[in-house]
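Researcher: I'm preparing a figure for a lab meeting and need a structural model of a single chain. I don't have an experimental structure, so a prediction will have to do for now. The sequence is pasted below. Please return the structure as tokens so I can convert it later.
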Amino acid sequence: SIYIARSDSTPKVRQAAVHVWKTMVSNTPKALKEMMSTLVMSMIESLSCPASERRSNAGRALGDLVRKLGDRVLPEVIPILRTGLQDPDSNLRQGVCFGLSELMDAATKQQLIEFTDDLVPTVRDALCDEDEEVRTAAGAAFATLYKAVGTSLVEQIVPKLLRELEESDDALDGLRQLCTNSSVVDFLVPNLSRPPMTAPKSRAIQVLAGVCDDRAGEFIEKLLPPLLQAMADVELGESCSKGADSLVSMVADDESMEALMAEVIRGLTYGEPEVKASAARVARTMLAEHAAVLKHERKASLYQTLIGLADEESESVLKAVWDALDGLLNILGQDEQIVYIQYIRESISSLTERRRRANLRSGGARADAIELRGLCQPNALAPLFPLLLHGLLHGTSEQREFAADALGEMIEATSFGALKPSAVKITGPLIRIMGDRFPWQVKAAITQTLAIMIGKGGLVLKPFVPQLQSTFVKGLQESARTVRTRAAAALGKLMKINARVDPLLKELLKGLSSEDNAIKESMHLALMHVLKSGPRTISPDIQDKAFEALKQGLQHDNIHVKISAAHAFAALGLHRYDEVSGMILDTAAHTDEKQRLGALVCVCYLIKLCTESILETQEEVERVLSVLVPMSSSEDEIVRGFFIKGAKSLILQQVARDQKPSMSECGPGFLRLLSDSSIEVKVDDIKAIKSMVKVDPKLFGGPALPKLLTRMAA
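Model: Understood. Here is the structure written out token by token.
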């Protein structure tokens, strides 16, 4: 105590202690050697005392001891301190760390290097102590020793700490004490980024992220990729996810945000499926934590990348991507949302086309509708439909049209199971918009989308049948032909869920009384779609009325009305074939060409729609051919064009049913029309021949082949 008092901060105490010491001790080195163990332990006790003055006095005393008798006392003091670390009293162990700091601060660099082998294990053990205050004091001791030893100290201590992380949380905090040293960080980063990623490494990354905010960009660039790779591992997943989250939390400026966004998009674009899933999860965290500082360009880039993964095969990727899309939707401002409609449409269009090409390359058929895997998940439309709805309700006319088209394409690529929960939410707003005053382009797009919705949703939309029917019937009277034709086709699709067809047919037949030829044409087209798609339970009275009305339409002066009536009359043949075919074939065979034009056109539609009835007997086939074949020599370009359509349809249907194709009757007509005066007829003829040869190359074989090739070349 007297020796320690010699370093007291109070001058009078210090002087008195020196006087007493000199009086009692004649040989200071000898006395110190004899009492070294007791003296050092007393100093340690004082260093662990809560009273700051007592700690200061003990620290100065230990420093004075080392400065004066360094080489003689260090071999004895260091083992005593090391032993003190085993003491159960945490305060005492903390005092040991303070003592180490004082000792190393007082010793020369040469002395510290000489005793490195003893000091390093002592500091390393203290850094893994179970008491937090001891570890903090050990961190200060490390800093003191580092000044003398340099980077070699890092290499001797840090790897051991990393290994200890597997078994001890205390080592984690010990590592945290060292991370204020830039050399430790420089040593850690390349070691942590080197594969394989382990749980201790991921925990060390969490420590780094917590104390090194100023190096966020560097850490994200070097440490996030290995974490993304390991996040899918069952054992490492949770730990690596926490490590990645800690890196996301480091972002504090534009530079670090740019680094994070670059790594996330790189993982989503080029990574393996497990990396893509991990990158999407990190994106979700980034959106939740840094929404306020994300620039529009970065959000747009991320959205494009995410929606571009809508057809990934991995379910884990799709789930993570959709979670990220949902998170992105939550932070978009209303003024931004419309821009993202373009990304949805472009991605869906690109992905569906890619699938079609893949099907063709693998020898499959080119499907009209491709369901994307991402749009077959439960609640698949949740992060997408709100954007489209916003465009429909609040966009300009062009934006509304674009949103409606995008919605239609999305519905086509969505499975029934995924669409069902959202069907009502989608259909209601579309019907309401159709009732507003918008340009025809918007109404045409929405009509098309509603038709697609009916085809996909089926009976789910049955509650909307009255509203949909009324909407489409009104659409038949629109000024734009595109709206009218789409409304007519949509009424046909509606028949799949509407059993009450008679009232609709009455309304359409009544619409034929209009003086407007455009509306007459639309009503005919609607009748054709309804008769073709509707149930076979139409009442005889309605059938009779339709028969008479359409027969009159065949004689109409307007060519478009005449052709549309022919199409509808052929569809009526699905319900009463004998009467329709008898009337059409008789009219086509026995009247002048001007009067029988509608009947000739109807023959071609009859072949297409009533194939089963025509091909049932050879007699019926010959009956049809007796009218069809002379059409190839007609003076009317329209009639010659319909010969091509009708003959092609008949032959392809015969080939499909393994019946003998009527090539001997129709073949000369196809060859003759290759030299037709009308360019349109020639082009249609070549296309028809190509489509038939593709199905059966033998159709134009034999003697006719050289002649065919010569004419096609001409």
